[in-house]
Amino acid sequence: MSHTAHIPSHRKPRRSASKMAMRAGVAGGVLGTLAVAGASGSANAAEPVTQTLELPTLTADMAVQVAQSAEVTQQAAANYQLQAERDAAAAKAAKQAKADLADAKKKAEAKKKKAEEAAREAAAERASRTAERTTLSASTSTSDSGSGASASVSTGSSTATGSAAAVVSFVKAQVGKAYVSGATGPSAYDCSGLVQTAFKQVGISLPRVSQDQSTAGTQVSLSNLQPGDILYWGGAGSAYHVGVYVGDGMFVGAQNPSTGVVERPLSYDPPSGAVRVL
After folding, report:
1. For residue range 35-55, what is the model confidence (pLDDT) as tens digits?
2. pLDDT of 206-251, one tens digit each?
3. How many CB atoms lie within 10 A of CB 178?
4. Strand, coil or helix: what is 254?
5. CA torsion 179→185→190→196, rounded to 10°?
């Protein structure tokens, strides 16, 4: 055996230079492609795409037109508001006028009803007096036929003195005032209210109603009347009307709602009787 025997080497075989060059070129090409793509992506990201819109230029004429349009709109709104206020006021006025008319009608109806009632009362009073006078006349005629005497109403003394004069003066001062049922003055009276108040002036307290006043004093003949005597119409104790004899054939009484307190001659409505309390 030769001392120079071949011993196997453990080194890897060397690659050829050509193969190594080829692989380096391929790697460089890949890296170059990646670099170009990355650069392109970075460029696209850094430069975003924008779009520009062109707006119309606001000229002086357009500004004037806009201002005028705004003014017209504001004026129209003011006109609408004014019209609405006028309509509301007109509606309120119409409603108030309707209410006033209804109230006026109601008052007119009440006044008419009151006047009609007063007229009925006056008519009933006149009818009652007429019937009473007819009865009194028939009684007087019968009495005269039996006795041959004639009934008459005397004016008696025409001059009042003392308390009678005060009563006469008071009732004459009330002439012209109103007749109100149940009233005792000072602005209105009914018939018995006037008589009661007149005698109260001289300290005499009389009953309130005509029926009782017709029997409050001494019965006197109508042919012997004196100022201050109380006249009554109807029967004593059932009289429906009273007044005060004031002398000279005259009397004062609160007659009815139509005439009020008046001074009349006895012939205007001859009384049925009289009483004297003074």
Report:
1. 444 545 444 445 555 555 555
2. 999 999 999 999 999 999 999 999 999 999 999 999 999 999 999 9
3. 14
4. strand
5. -160
Sign of the alpha-carbon torsion through 196, 199, 201, 207: negative
Rounded distance between C-alpha atoms, residue 199 and residue 167, angstroms = 6
Question: What span, in angstroms and rounded, lies between the C-alpha atoms of 196 and 250?
Answer: 19
CA 67 from chain center: how many Å? 51
For the record, the structure tokens of 266 come out as: 């006895």
Q: 261: which strand partners?
A: 254
Work out the number of other CB atoms within 10 angstroms of the CB of residue 7: 6
CB burial readout 62-99, b (16+ within 10 A) else e? eeeeeeeeeeeeeeeeeeeeeeeeeeeeeeeeeeeeee
**Strands 230-233 and 250-256, sheet pairing:** unpaired
Entry pTM: 0.48
**First vs last C-alpha separation in the chain:** 204
Domain spanning 154-276: which CATH class is it, in words? Answer: alpha beta
User: Which residue is it, tokens 């793509």?
Assistant: 37
Q: Whole-angstrom Cα distance, residue 39 to residue 145?
A: 161
Residue 51's CB is within 10 A of a number of other CB atoms, namely 4
Q: Are strands 178-179 and 188-189 parallel, antiparallel or unpaired?
A: parallel
**Domain layout of the chain by residue ranges:** 78-143, 154-276
- C-alpha 226/C-alpha 38 separation (Å) is 149
Query: Torsions phi, psi of 223, nearest 5?
Result: -90, 0
